[in-house]
Predict the structure of Protein YTP1.
Amino acid sequence: MWLRAWLVGAACVALVLAHGGHGSAPVNTEEQKKTPVDAALWIHIALEATAWAVLFPLAMVLGLVRHKLHVPLASAAVLLSLVGYYLGSHHKGRQFPHTVHGTMASILFFTLLTQAVCGVYLKLHLSWKAEAYIRPPVLRVHGFLGRAFPVLGWTQMVFGIATLQSWCRGGHLGQCLAHYIMGSAFAGYSVILLIMLKCAVEWLRRRGVSEEYLDSWVILLWGIVNTFTEHHGGPWTHKDLQHTLMGVLWWAGGAVGVWLSRKGKRSIFPAIIILLTGWAMSGHAQALMLSTMVHSLFGYTLMAAGVCRVIEICFVLHDQPTGEGELGADDDGWFRIRVFQYLPPFLLTASGILFMSATDEELHWADAKGVDHVTWGMIDFSVALVLFLWIKYVPLSRSVLIDTYIGYGGRYGLARGTSADAPHSSHPRTDWSYASLRSSHTEAPPPAPAESIPMDGYRKPAPASAPEPEHHVLFDEEDPFENEP
């Protein structure tokens, strides 16, 4: 334990020593833009993408389920990020003016340093008088930052792509913000749908709300903001009207959704809003023909997501919550999931990637390279499939992020079949260790960890005299390191 703590501590010191100013060149000229990118910068991109897109998200999930590989994996991610940070600040070849990517790098540096210091402190298990007062807030900061890393990493990678291509400068900034924020929102919505689908059924049931109730509130609030931020003075144009009316559509539809999905009822109106948004974007004419075609493809994909969501709620689930019915022998989650239910999240992921790739600068660059809308669309759908693969499901290794969390039974090591109290326990198969780190010994699954705690939704009905637990275990901020040697 002490050795691991010292290793992480040494990494923190190295980060401090390596932290230097981000050199910046004058504003890019055409000659600078044509300067080749050297090997050091490509290695920087590869290392940072590996650390922030792969290792940190996986380390977060392993930390939530108290896996022993959490610390080694997080330490490896810190090391890769450190080396990549150094190369990004000391490369030759093409130089760049100071951008938000450089500013974000400094923010991430101090965030990473704070996270590492918190992790070292938690691993030391100090025994002193102030421990009872210091450890809980340190644990909360460590947990919050760990959960924020995937979002921060995604944001920085988007900034990095724009910086590498010298996009989003001057008058193009507003359009970049609109496309990147909305596209990321659709991709993020697909992740939330998957989480709700795979492991939040009981969380919704205990609170007496449906997914659509939460969705409708987000749509309502976003629509209000959009209504008053799309016109920036001067004469109204048809684009100003379309964007403003899109906001009106969202807050009006969101209000209907909130009203109809009260008391845990399902509602199709969030899906209707998505469908109408796709219809509007499919006819959103652009100056460049390639841009018009890509916007149309985005609109059709978003319409398909809305239609599939309506079919899922009305004809697949028959207005019932996800998870109703008996689990089959091949089901791999905590709750019954129909195959069709994976289609709306994927289409939302694809819609988000398509919209993020549809800025004027990106499509003018693609048009200059001779790329048509079919090729551009296939690139976007390929990226969406890889992203969906990572956040959701791998048929061969059975799981990555969300399925790793489920495979290890959430934060407390529970999985279907490890407790006689679990519903559907007629299937004795134990899946708590089947994730991509599964042992090669398959004769008999290992027992669940000693710290396993049954989820409330899996307990037998308690006697009338037994008090109800105050919090669901997924939201109890207990120390994930307290039982480690």
